[in-house]
Amino acid sequence: MKFKTILLLTSLAASTIAAAQDKTSKDNNDRPSRLEEGYGSNELLSDNLPYMPSISLQERIKFTGDIRLRSQTIDKDGDDEHKFRYRVRVGFEAAVNDDVKLEFMLASGEGDPVSTNQDFGEGFSGKNVVIDVADIYYTFGYHNFVRAGKIKLPFYRTHKNQMLWDNDLRPEGVFSKYKLFKNMDITAGAFVVRNNGSTDKRDDLNLYPDAKEGGSVYLYTAKAIQYINDFRFGVSANIYDALKGESPYVKYNSGDNSEGDGKDLSKGNSLDANGNYVNDYHLWEAFAQYQATEKLAFGVDVVYNSGADNENVAYNLSAMYGKLKKDGDMKFGYYYRDTEKDAVFAAYSDSDFAGGYAGSKGHQLMAGYQLAKHVQLAATYINARVDKPGYTQDYQRLHLDMKFKF
After folding, report:
1. Strand partners for 79
2. Each residue of 97-137: pLDDT tens digit?
3. Is the pLDDT of residue 41 over 80?
4. From the CB of residue 20, how many other CB atoms can be counted at a distance below 10 Å?
5. Cβ-based neighbour number of residue 228 at 10 Å
6. Long-range contacts: 26-29, Cβ < 8 Å, 24+?
7. Most confident among 211-220, 244-253, 355-364 (mean pLDDT)
8. Residue 263: is its pLDDT beyond 50?
9. Which of 158, 159, 340, 350 is a Cys-bridge partner for 311, taking CB atoms 3.0 to 4.6 Å apart?
10. 3-state helix, strand, coil in the chain (%, to 5)
């Protein structure tokens, strides 16, 4: 743990030193906005480079938000479930000065870390609102920044696949991006997953029902992304510190509701007889994306968990065609995913694919249509199979979405 902490602090210190050196070369005029990279649009069909907000000091404050209306159908071994859902997010970006900006966002939700969806049909009851994003940015140089707080998912993912990270996840901690060379980005982060003694301790006989877990859990990440002509590729390390022997501590209101509604679950990761994690999750990733034509691109993403001895490899193959920019534009996407049960930390991976479970494989089809400015129609179909204790479950899911942003 000391080595990882020193490595992280060294990376962040290097970024701070570079800030002073690159101060005079800062250029904000052509920096793409993060909002233009898909926030509030069809997340699965957009790219996601970790750029800064585009708010300028002259503007001071820019309000932004989106609303998504969804028809959702899930078929598990022939047992159908249909519901209507919505998601609302609203907030603002603000310029403190030329170098410091902040972002704040509220969202509908119950506190689920991987979903802010709300269901229609609960007796017209009022719905909860949660803090979705609350972070500070310090910019330096060209496309370089340090950000801290509750952060909109900052990690680059090939074709925004959610094998490792669900789109709605908001890590809490510090994240930095630095352009090391002309065509290489380096990112690093440290996040507090769980504070010391915040969840119940499990034991065979339940002799100590009020006892708490003994240690804190942190996530350390580092990633290098290289750009060469039409290729984009890289590697990353994502280390969860001290998960082995801990109880699942995340409560869900999404995914497989028959087992996950308001309950803490491992979502397919291996547990021992006491209900604690058998393995650590030290996730090593390699990825590549190739832009074959102006509209057609292919990608591959592979993850290996060195903290587990078996069932520890996952991969996602992707293809995308088209762009969503002008009225009438269409875009299509495809994933094939195979995730062994301990290859990813399932608490934070895709909450839709196979109900959020690791130990699953299958296909995902996506389509988007730009109906009007800031208005999109989207469809997602998932056909997967998931291994659960003692049986295998066929899982199908269909989303029909209408999305509005401002």
Report:
1. 76
2. 989 999 999 999 988 999 999 999 888 988 899 999 999 99
3. no
4. 10
5. 9
6. 26/99, 26/139, 26/140, 26/141, 26/142, 27/142, 28/56, 28/139
7. 355-364
8. yes
9. 340
10. 10, 50, 40
- Domains, the chain, ranges and CATH? 2-405 (2.40.160.10)
Q: Supply the DSSP symbol for 353.
A: G
pLDDT tens-place string over residues 72-85? 999 998 889 999 99
Token output for 142: 């060209």
CA distances from 365 to 134, 161, 266, 333, 378 (A): 33, 12, 26, 6, 11
Q: What are the tokens at 180? A: 């090391």
Identity of the residue numbered 390: G
Residue 141 has pLDDT above 80, yes or no: no
- b/e map of 112-147 (b: 16 or more CB within 10 Å)? bbbbbbbeeeeeeeeeeeeebbbbebbbbbebbbbb
What is the CA angle 276-277-280, rounded to 5? 150
Nearby residues of 298 by Cβ (< 8 Å), 6 or more positions away: 289, 290, 292, 318, 319, 320
* Pairing assessment for the beta strands 330-339 and 313-322 based on DSSP bridges: antiparallel
The three state secondary structure string of 361-377 is: EEEEEEEEEEEECCEEE
197 and 240 Cβ atoms separated by less than 8 Å: no
Instruction: State the pLDDT at residue 98.
Output: 87
Residue 26 in this model has a pLDDT that exceeds 60: no
What does the alpha-carbon distance between residue 145 and residue 15 come to, in Å, rounded to a whole number?
8
pLDDT in tens, 91-107: 999 999 989 999 999 99
Q: How far apart are CA 258 and CA 250, in angstroms?
A: 16
Phi-psi region of 60 (alpha: psi -120 to 50; beta: other; left: phi over 0): left
**Which two tokens mark 129?**
């609102």
What is the distance between the alpha carbons of residues 382 and 397, in angstroms, rounded to a whole number? 5
Q: Name the residue among 194, 162, 122 with its Cα closest to residue 344.
A: 162
Could you tell me the CA-to-CA distances from 37 to 8, 53, 234 in Å, in that order? 27, 11, 20
